[in-house]
Design a protein that fits this description.
The chain is an alpha/beta fold. It has 2 domains: 2-183 and 364-377, Rossmann fold (3-Layer(aba) Sandwich); 193-355, Rossmann fold, CATH 3.40.50. It is built from 18 helices and 14 strands. An 8-stranded mixed beta sheet has the order 1-4-3-2-5-6-7-8, with helices on both faces. Helix 3 packs parallel to helix 4. The longest helix is centred in the first third of the chain and has 18 residues, at 80-97. The chain is globular. Residues 4-12 have low confidence and may be disordered.
């Protein structure tokens, strides 16, 4: 384990008696930043390092105004089992030495499960943020993680009524469930650049508002095998060749897959850029004519940004964006291009309709509710 504090500061920054917020990926950083801000001195960030690099994760920590109190060692790059086992071992030792009064985890990552197992083994109260998501696709490791964590947690923070209903159907006691909304609403409103900054951002990329697509691909189901990645890139390339620029921030994992599968020629028509910071991504998404992504977070963010999204997935645990009309689920292949062209054809009407549609993810006060729930377990 590493810490950004010197040994003499250890007692000041100890986890003992505080709320340990355990996470390991950039999306978790984004979602839990408002909770950490609300907790203030009562909260301590524990980063497992599942997705840690100074360029991306370090920048997110700085952009979101966070400070890493503890970072675990040797987690990234391992198999799923290896990540969970090594994180659990280190968290168990850490929580034994500096017992927190409560542990907060979010979502369904390997870090989430490791944090939940460590808290459960030591009898530390556990709060699960974004509880009750279900894709009903047991081929997804994330589905295993989220189900196990939900049944370990003492307090389950359901973002939507659908999430709450999922938990009740599985036999979770209603008294353990609180409908909080999703922190994504306040994160987007806080981090979205202002109009002048967004104008400058579009100018730097040579784009015009409402005149481009913004696409991201990262999930294993779209990148591990050549066929789905080829299918999506082909459709994006066709859209770009037809006159609609496609901005494609490509992370190292996807770049490696493109090279491994011999698909470099398919990204040639796209405007490929390195991964962008969170605020920059929101600014670009806010003015895109259409979003195409397999990201969990973008499915939520589009409902706050009021932009249409094609979700390139075989299933989703976030049906609310689809039900509200913000998104549609598509498989890799011609369906991407067909639906993209149809949505672009009625863009003004679609954007007007979405602008008048409230986000299904709440009123922007989720972090306050979660912090209040943690206070019941870890009084000031």
């Amino acid at each position: 384990m590493t810490s950004s504090h010197s040994p003499r500061d250890r007692s000041v920054h100890s986890l003992a008696g505080r709320v340990a917020v355990v996470l390991g990926t950039r999306p978790e950083l984004v979602r839990l930043a408002p909770v950490l801000h609300r907790l203030g001195a009562r909260g301590r960030l524990v980063h497992t390092g599942q997705h840690w690099d100074e360029e991306l994760s370090g920048r997110f920590v700085d952009e979101l105004g966070l400070h890493t109190a503890v970072r675990l060692e040797g987690i990234g790059g391992r198999t799923r089992a290896g990540q969970i086992a090594h994180a659990l071992d280190q968290l168990d030792r850490l929580f034994t030495e500096e017992r927190p009064s409560a542990v907060i985890v979010q979502g369904d990552t390997n870090a989430t499960l490791a944090g939940a197992l460590a808290a459960n083994a030591l009898g530390i109260p556990l709060i699960h943020v974004e509880a009750g998501l279900r894709s009903h696709d047991r081929a997804m490791p994330e589905e295993h993680n989220r189900v196990m964590v939900d049944h370990l947690a003492d307090i389950l923070c359901a973002a939507t009524g659908t999430n709450r209903d999922n938990l009740v159907r599985e036999g979770v006691q209603p008294g353990r469930i609180t409908l909080t909304g999703n922190t994504v609403v306040e994160v987007v409103l806080r981090e979205l650049p202002d109009a002048d900054a967004r104008h400058d951002l579009l100018r730097r990329h040579g784009l015009t508002a409402g005149g481009y697509l913004l696409a991201t691909l990262d999930r294993p189901e779209n990148t591990d095998l050549p066929e789905p990645l080829r299918a999506v890139l082909t459709e994006l390339g066709t859209l770009a060749d037809s006159g609609t620029p496609v901005l494609f921030p490509m992370g190292p994992r996807t770049a490696a897959a493109v090279a491994r599968h011999g698909l470099r020629r398919l990204v040639a028509p796209l405007r490929v850029v390195p991964p962008v910071g969170y605020a920059e991504f929101l600014g670009l998404a806010r003015h895109a004519a259409l979003l195409v992504s397999d990201s969990d977070g973008v499915q939520e963010e589009c409902t706050v940004l009021k932009r249409p999204l094609l979700v390139v997935r075989r299933s989703t645990e976030r049906p609310e964006a689809v039900d509200a009309g913000f998104a549609a689920l598509v498989r890799p292949g011609p369906e991407v291009g067909v639906l993209a062209r149809a949505w672009l054809a009625d863009l003004p009407e679609r954007l007007s309709r979405l602008a008048a549609t409230p986000s299904p993810y709440g009123d922007g006060r989720a972090s306050a509710r979660i912090a209040e729930l943690s206070a019941s377990l870890a009084p000031v």
